[in-house]
Amino acid sequence: MVKYFLGQSVLRSSWDQVFAAFWQRYPNPYSKHVLTEDIVHWEVTPDQKLLSQRLLTKTNRMPRWAERLFPANVAHSVVDPQNQTMTTFTWNINHARLMVVEERCVYCVNSDNSGWTEIRREAWVSSSLFLELSRNLALPGSKAM
User: Most CB atoms within 10 A, among 33, 56, 88, 117?
Assistant: First the structure.
């Protein structure tokens, strides 16, 4: 079973400011949910894109039982300074057999105001366990499929 979420926002900051803030965001006193952020790998490609892989250990804004299940995430990012885009892809590495939460964010210059930045966030939550449970448990008034 996969659930899909989509959100789009406009940040009233330039792409350069958003890009700089992205790399300087941890540690900071306002993000106490992030315990560690370690860069595992980074490289600049021949076409001048910055690729990175990071490991984040954090507590999440979710029920306490879920915080214990999903404390670590892997984050990949691709920064294209020439086209002023940054794409991040994050997913959990703990208990992936139970549930996988994946998020992709794309940051780019706003088409209406070049001093602003657009962000498109997509998330996928998939779980074969919950699919099996939903198939085997019939809710009152529902039909089994």
Answer: 117
Give the model's pLDDT for residue 83.
96
Domains (range + CATH), the chain: 2-133 (3.30.530.20)
> What mean pLDDT value characterizes the chain?
79
- Classify residue 83 as exposed, middle or buried by CB count within 10 Å of its CB (0-12, 13-18, 19+): exposed
| Over residues 5-18, mean pLDDT | 95
Lowest mean pLDDT among 1-10, 60-69, 109-118, 119-128: 60-69
Residue 95's contacts (CB-CB under 8 Å, 6 or more residues apart) are 69, 70
The residues, ordered by sequence, that sit 6+ positions from 103 with a Cβ below 8 Å of its Cβ are 88, 89, 90, 91, 121, 122, 123, 124
CA neighbor of 121 nearest in space, from 11, 33, 34: 11
* Sheet of 50-58, strands arranged across: 2-11, 117-126, 100-109, 85-92, 72-80, 50-58, 34-44
